Amino acid sequence: MEFSKDYVFDRADGPGELKLIRRPVPVPNSNEVIVSMKAAGLNRSEYMFLTGTYVFQPVFPSKIGTEGAGIIYSLGDEVSGFEIGDEVCVTPNILPQEYGVMGEYVRVPKDALVHKPKQLSFEEAGSIWMALSTAYCGLVVNGGLKRDHGQTVLISAASSSVGVALIQMAKNHGAKVIVTTRTSQKADFLYEMGADYVIATENEDIVVMVNEYTNGKGFDIGFDMVAGEMLTKFAEAAGIGARIIAGGLLSMEVPEIPFFPLVMKNLTLGSFHVVIHLFRNPEVFETAKKHILEGIESGAYGAQIDKVFDFEHTAKAYEYLAGSTQRGKVVVTFKNNRDGIN
């Protein structure tokens, strides 16, 4: 009998609750596959899930992890379009209380799979889909980003993996990109990623700087991952008719609605959940997938990996992610001696 090492947790009290268990390699249901994992990308939503602060609550003993890459080990009876031995990306088209990819051999739905782009390593392929899908859904689908329309995009907390993807998405559409970061320490990195202007919020006022960079017009599309007071700052810095997408809660402070700027500037305030509103909408996901894969092939989109941890150090990887010091993606790799082919 083949065995797999997997992470589970029994209390939503942070990464310290993760424990490594040994269990038989799972058997796929009819529309599922078993993937021999090679790499997994970590996401802020998973840390929130670990701490009981996410929109979905864990069912104990709970799995963890929502995206990665690996090799197909076995197939369910009704799976088509994939074969044993295929190299694949596991996209975040899974709900955390149902599946988890932080294990050597994991069971995932066929609909979560995309063939791995050949030019990407497993580490890169396992770290792009949450970020780029969020960027596409937030900026293009909800934000109204259009190619070469001369739009200005404002992004908060831009040094995260999603922030980098947002910069790439906006620049690939010909937009001017203004980003925020807490201190100036990450400014050079953000300029390297493609930002046109960087605002260090510790000593610069967002509204003043956005007005300066846009000649008083304000931005057209804003993507805020901080919430709290940041959302009010976005509303005050917005241009007439701008759209603001609330895409995260890094501050852990639920914001008040900035009513008067919304009214006076005719602003649109929206949000989304990438699994529910992109991955579970086949037509939208197919369009997004085609766009993302074309961008990867052209070099417009790519992974920005900050740090790689071994599978045995997964708890440390989540703790590092929680510190918000990373510049891009945190990745876990699996040193599995088997080749993943049954």
Count every helix, treating DSSP H or I runs of 4 or more residues as helices. Answer: 11
Number of distinct beta strands: 15
Mean pLDDT across the residues is 95
Range of strand content: 25-35%
Distance linking N and C termini: 12 Å
User: Which consecutive residue ranges, at least 5 long each, have pLDDT under 50?
Assistant: 337-342
Alpha-beta content class: alpha/beta
Largest β sheet strand count, sense and barrel closure: 7 strands, mixed
| Order of secondary-structure elements | EEEHEEEEHHEHEHEHEHEHEHHEHE
Q: Which helices and strands, and how do they pair?
A:
Elements: E1 3-8, E2 19-24, E3 32-41, H1 44-50, E4 68-75, E5 87-90, E6 105-109, E7 113-115, H2 122-125, H3 129-142, E8 152-155, H4 161-172, E9 176-181, H5 187-193, E10 197-200, H6 206-213, E11 219-224, H7 229-237, E12 238-246, H8 259-265, E13 268-271, H9 274-279, H10 282-298, E14 305-310, H11 314-322, E15 329-333
Parallel strand pairs: 8-9, 8-11, 9-10, 11-12, 12-13, 14-15
Antiparallel strand pairs: 1-2, 3-4, 3-6, 3-15, 4-5, 5-7
